[in-house]
Amino acid sequence: MPGLIPFNARSHFIPFGKVFDGYGNMLDDFFSGNMSSRNLICDTFKIDIVDTETGYLIEAELPGVKKDELELNIDDEGLCISVNRSEEVNNDSRNYIHRERCVTAMSRRVRLAGAKLSDIKAKIDDGVLTITIPKEELVSSPRKINID
Questions:
Q1: Least confident window among 17-21, 40-44, 57-61, 125-129
Q2: Per residue in 51-88, pLDDT tens?
Q3: What's the rounded Cα separation, in Å, for the pair 70 and 121?
Q4: Which of left, alpha, beta for 22 (phi over 0: left; psi -120 to 50: alpha)?
Q5: What is the CATH number for 52?
Q6: Which one has a higher pLDDT value, 92 or 8?
Q7: Nearest 5°: CA angle at 106, between 105 and 108?
Q8: Within a domain: 89
Q9: Is 10 in a helix, a strand, or coil?
Q10: Residue 139: inside a domain
Q11: In what order do the strands lie in the sheet with 70-75?
Q12: Which residues pair with 42 in a beta bridge?
């Protein structure tokens, strides 16, 4: 197995056989934020929120996530997008060198001013969840204020 190259190897690859194989990459990865260990920042999904004249458009990147693994909830504080996904493969007959599949639960909460949360529409297509939320129509009627 000396021919395998770690997935995080840099172009300044440290040759195999040295006493401290890979420690240079590990330190570089630690300070650049590319550690292979999981952390909260890397274990969430990315969202874009667009404010239009008539409402909000939310797009969430969820590659490989199925519709039944998603949950959208509304409460007084806004919209909560949750993913509960199980990628675990139980095949003990294999001799794994590296394994990253796991059970994952992630959620993001979005608070939008003036959103009409009763009329939300959502769809998922090609790994992108698209949510449209109309804005409440604000009726402003001018009124005179008496000065005492």
A1: 17-21
A2: 998 999 999 999 888 899 999 998 877 899 999 887 66
A3: 14
A4: left
A5: 2.60.40.790
A6: 92
A7: 155
A8: yes
A9: coil
A10: no
A11: 70-75, 78-86, 103-110
A12: none
- Whether residues 123 and 51 fall in one domain: yes
pLDDT single digits (tens) 88-126: 666 667 777 877 766 778 899 998 888 888 889 999 999
47-51: strand order across its sheet: 47-51, 55-61, 128-134, 121-125
Q: Which of 83, 88, 74 is nearest to 127 (CA)?
A: 83
Type and span of the H or E element at 107 = strand 103-110
Question: Do 18 and 77 lie in a common domain?
Answer: no
Q: Where are the alpha helices (DSSP H) in 22-71?
A: 23-32
24: which residues sit within 8 A by CB, 6+ positions away?
12, 14
Give 45's contacts (C-beta < 8 A, 6+ positions apart). 60, 61, 62, 81, 83, 106, 108
User: Which pair of structure tokens corresponds to residue 17?
Assistant: 């056989």
For residue 131 the two structure tokens come to 């949510």
Task: Say if residue 28 is in the same domain as residue 72.
Answer: no
